[in-house]
Design goal:
By secondary structure, the chain is an all-beta fold. The chain has no helices and nine strands. The strands form three sheets. Strands 2-9-8-5 form a four-stranded mixed sheet, with no helix packed on it. β6 and β7 form a beta hairpin.
Amino acid sequence: RIINDSPRNRPPVLVQGGDLRNWEIYEDTPVGSTVYTLVGQDPEGSQIFYTISGDYFSADINTGVVTLKKPLDREKVPKIDVVITIQDEPIREIPENLIPFRRSVKVLD
């Protein structure tokens, strides 16, 4: 019988309802508003760090809280494509995982 007790670092995942899937935002949302909270889980229970790409949103690296940072105009930009990344912590000699997720955000009138 072989026992493998070497450490593993499985990748984190975004949780349904905290993954920005099928999410929409109204164009009159005020800049600076909290608009979403990303939620991830790590199989080993380590802390997760969040980022979001592009000009329209920022994500708090520790909490996943997403803020609108630029005015929206549905007539000019009806859809915003972003890449969310979540990262866990390294475990012993095993490096952290950095996992990207592509999402499209629909802008509503």
